[in-house]
Amino acid sequence: MNNIVIIGCGIIGATLAYELSLIEGLKITVIDKQTPAQEATGAALGVLMGIISHKVKGKAWRMRQTSIQRYETLIPELEAITKRKIPFNRQGILMLLPSPEVTTDDLAFWEKLRETRQNQGWELNILDKSQLGKMCPQVDMTGREYIGAIHSPQDRQLDPTAFTLALVEAAKHNGVDFRFGVSALGMKSTSNQQNSSARELGTSNQQNSSARELGTSNQQNSSARELESSNQQNSSARELETSNQQNSIARELGTSNQQNSSARELETSNQQNSSARELETTSGVITADTFIICAGLGSSPLTEQLNQKVDIRPVLGQAIHLRLSHPLGKTKFQPAITCNDTYIVPRRPNVYPSTDYWVGATVEFTQENGEVVADKQLLETTLQSAIATCPELAKAQIVDTWSGLRPRPEGRPAPVIEKLPGYDNVILASAHYRNGVLLAPATAEMVKGMVLEG
């Protein structure tokens, strides 16, 4: 049986746990220092901008399409197991096009994207000003000028916390062992035969030299001395004098029977093909065949202990929960509305009253001193932007405000989904930045492939 340890139980870790629990022969353990759906997951608005995104090809588009497709089957699947409804808004996303921010060139882009999506089997609708006013009377058409709007009826919005808790319950039903209140303290690794051979060749700055020496006769004795113990040096040197015996030496390195291949592989990191051996936690040591790190900002310290630090930095987001005495606009058409990166998200009546809305979210980077502090003025600016879009929100009661830290990779695109460089059994699935909820199913699909490949 293949033992899997997942570190982190936000929406990524919980989705991984459930999807992997559907595979026979896996023993899965999930640890988290907190209860599920904290940090970035608990602060997210859950807007799934897949079809309406500007991505049209490559990995970025494939992941979005995979996730949108899987959500349509995953939500009813989880509801059947847990016997509980998950707030899932199927009325799409409405992106307003304000003037003068949106130009005729922008409209041409949306026309082209609509055609592309149609060819891909998806729907995008471009609404003019008149259509927008009829569909969403809550949008103020006098205080701000709009060219129109984009309606993406197949995009979705869900409650990230409710969804994550349902994943945990369903995964438990399938035998996954969840250990909450358990912190990961560190990881230890062991090297395989190749690293052992590399160490016999000398320090890392000598490995490349040794590999190159394999191909030349005047350096064979030096290579032989590094490859063999002292009582075998002369014999190894003689063996290296023929090309067939050089290949034998390369095979002893555990790589290839070809010297050039051996040399190339030795010129990589001296940690190539290492394996993580155990995870030290506050409740003891856990061993596993595969470790999956999806701990958000907590991923960096773990990778650093394996000498492969992945730089992930926090970006703070604030949001606000509002309550009105009546629903905005038409009660039977309540899409998530976005304008100038401000979101107005209706809450589903089976969890909150149908008059409740989430508004957010700010994007706040670290200060010069490295700290991330919530700026109340930025949240107020976001609220006023929402009120400018839907003036009735000015009458709303503030139920709650909150903030969370999004994990953003430094110097590379989000997310980071890969085998940790130098390790054959450590998978990193983290740093999704603002798209953790959207990309959770696609991330699970990618990681599942890595686990099955071994």
- Overall geometry comes to globular
Mean pLDDT: 86
The low-confidence parts are 192-271
| Number of continuous helical runs | 15
CATH H-level name of the domain at 1-88 and 157-191 and 274-311 and 410-454... which superfamily?
Answer: FAD/NAD(P)-binding domain
Strand line-up across the major sheet: 6-7-5-15-16-17-14-18
Coarse structural class: alpha+beta
Walk me through this protein's architecture.
The protein is α+β, with helices and mostly antiparallel strands and 454 residues long. 37% of the residues lie in helices and 24% in strands. The strands form 4 sheets. An 8-stranded mixed beta sheet has the order 6-7-5-15-16-17-14-18. Helix 1 runs parallel beside helix 6. The model is unreliable at 192-271 (pLDDT under 50).
Précis, in short:
GO terms for molecular function: oxidoreductase activity. This protein has 454 residues and is an alpha+beta fold.
Give the SSE map.
Layout: E1 2-7, H1 11-21, E2 26-32, H2 39-43, E3 47-48, H3 58-82, E4 88-89, E5 93-98, H4 104-120, E6 125-128, H5 129-135, E7 146-152, E8 156-158, H6 160-173, E9 177-180, E10 184-190, H7 193-201, H8 204-213, H9 220-227, H10 233-239, H11 243-252, H12 259-266, E11 275-281, E12 284-287, E13 290-293, H13 299-305, E14 312-323, E15 336-339, E16 342-346, E17 356-360, H14 376-389, E18 397-409, E19 416-419, E20 426-430, H15 436-453
Helix pairs in contact: 1-6, 1-15, 3-6, 3-15, 8-12, 9-10
Keywords: Oxidoreductase
GO molecular function, one term: oxidoreductase activity
Pfam families: DAO
